[in-house]
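Revision sheet: structure tokens.
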Amino acid sequence: MSAKKSRVAKIETESNGAAAKSKTKAAQARSKANSTQSELMRLALKACLIARDATFNVQDLLTNSSRMAFLAIRDCEKELDQIERLIDEQLPGAITRVNETKARQLLACLKCITDLERIGDLVMSVAHRLQARSGQLSDNDVRHLVQMSAVLHDMLDGSHLPRPVSKTSRR
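Predicted:
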């Protein structure tokens, strides 16, 4: 009888150990998913700041024909490309390990980085065209382009800060 009880106790102990390991693995997976989600959101916010910097530098390029501004725009565009690739690579795996609310946040990150990378491409295109021009732009054209880039800069400056979402504003 005692051998039977010993075997039952051993099986229960092994079963409890397996359950504990399973719970530990699940907790580690949740922790990794939350960490990945946080990293992707951080990268999207960083991309917003980089795109904002690119718009500031295009203003400098327009007004001063600064070579440093051109190089800074190029660096911003390259960094936006890298961030987009990173998010594209990590998001599919991350989105499968989170709940619906977090999945929506991750999809928002993907949409944002796509738009921000496109902004970087367009700013780089403007910079290349300015560098390729043989003549000067008219003062009126420069003023309008500076105003447009200032508006975009202000929009990016105001949008990069995370804001709490109230339940009444969501639909």
